[in-house]
Amino acid sequence: MTLPVPTEPGRDAAAGRASSTAPPTTDDASSPSPVTPERRRRGRAAAAARWLAGRVVGGVVVLWAVATLVFFAIRLVPGDPAEAILGGPGSQASAEALALVREQYGLGDPLLLQYLAQLGRLVTGDLGTSYSLRTDVGALLLDQLPGTVVLAACALAVAWLIALGTAWWATLGGRVAAAVSSGLEVVAAAVPHFWLGSVLVLVLSTQLGLLPPVSTGTPIGLVLPVVTLAVPVAGFLGQVTRDSLLDAASSPFALSARARGESTSGLFGRHLLRHAALPGLALSGWAFGSLLSGAVVVESVFARPGLGRTLLGAVTLRDIPLVTGVALVSALSYVVVVALGDLAERLVDPRVRAS
């Protein structure tokens, strides 16, 4: 049994007064530091840097994959690259000339060494010399790229106009309009570029004489190629935009805006369009890639100069440097447009910015 230790009454009273008046202590390590505007700006800059670095790394991986795929795929095409360099099968090149060309271009080396040599040239920006045109591939692509980019950009804009028009009509016209627009979108998405271009040339050029049948380098000569390229993409964009627009029209914020007396055009422009365009913006990168691939057919149908016709001729002539260059430029354009679409989605949707 232990006895309590006696203490002095005055000392206990002083200790009690000191403990009652002392401020409570807090753990500085556990308390969160205030979020200052400077810290917020630094966080945004760090997030933007991470996003940009991810895009750059992803773009490099895509370009490497495209270069690798093209390198091995073009060698599956029947024919001798050395013969293509000397003018094709009709050149009747001698065996000595073929052997000299193989030695000069390294075509007799093992496939792995040829692949590594090509990657080394591409890293330095050297796209090589075209076998068939005897000109620098980089200069040739810079000359052909603007026409294809203008064609694809105009087609994407027209596709968006058609998609938004059909989606708006489906939203305002009721069930019948929604059903009709859905059917038109399915048909538009399934139409082949070659068939649509041929029909437009037959009707609008041959029979009616309204538009030139081939590209003339003027704005009027751009109408048929743009419409031919835009209609199938508009079908896909219209399906996505219409469904999103119908969902947004029945949401609580739309009903609240109608209750406040918002007009139909104001409701569509200020509220519904911003929500309905988000899935379409995410698909814009894919749409641009589809337009680049469709340009191969459209530029051939309307005799329009560009990357599409260049690629078709290069594949036919087994022009390996030119095929590789066109594929890389198309892939780079696709990567850039996808990044721009992602950036536009971040600007439009606050939830993406917050994440």
User: Which fold name fills CATH's third level, the topology of the largest domain?
Assistant: MetI-like fold
Helical stretch tally: 14
H/E element string?
A: HHHHHHHHHHHHHH
Counting helices, strands and paired strands, the structural category is: mainly alpha
What gross morphology would you assign? flat
Walkthrough of the structure:
The chain folds into 2 domains: 59-123, no CATH class; 137-354, Orthogonal Bundle (MetI-like fold). It is 75% helix and 0% strand. The protein has helices spanning 9-21, 37-74, 81-85, 95-105, 111-123, 137-172, 174-190, 193-207, 223-249, 252-259, 264-301, 307-316, 320-348, 350-354. Helix 2 (37-74) packs antiparallel against helix 13 (320-348), helix 9 packs antiparallel against helix 11 (264-301) and helix 12 (307-316) runs antiparallel to helix 13. The longest helix is centred in the first third of the chain and has 38 residues, at 37-74.
Write the layout of secondary structure elements.
Layout: H1 9-21, H2 37-74, H3 81-85, H4 95-105, H5 111-123, H6 137-172, H7 174-190, H8 193-207, H9 223-249, H10 252-259, H11 264-301, H12 307-316, H13 320-348, H14 350-354
Helix pairs in contact: 2-13, 6-7, 6-9, 6-11, 6-13, 7-9, 8-9, 8-11, 9-11, 10-11, 11-12, 11-13, 12-13
Question: What's a concise summary of this model?
Answer:
The chain has helices spanning 9-21, 37-74, 81-85, 95-105, 111-123, 137-172, 174-190, 193-207, 223-249, 252-259, 264-301, 307-316, 320-348, 350-354. With 355 residues, the chain is mostly helical.
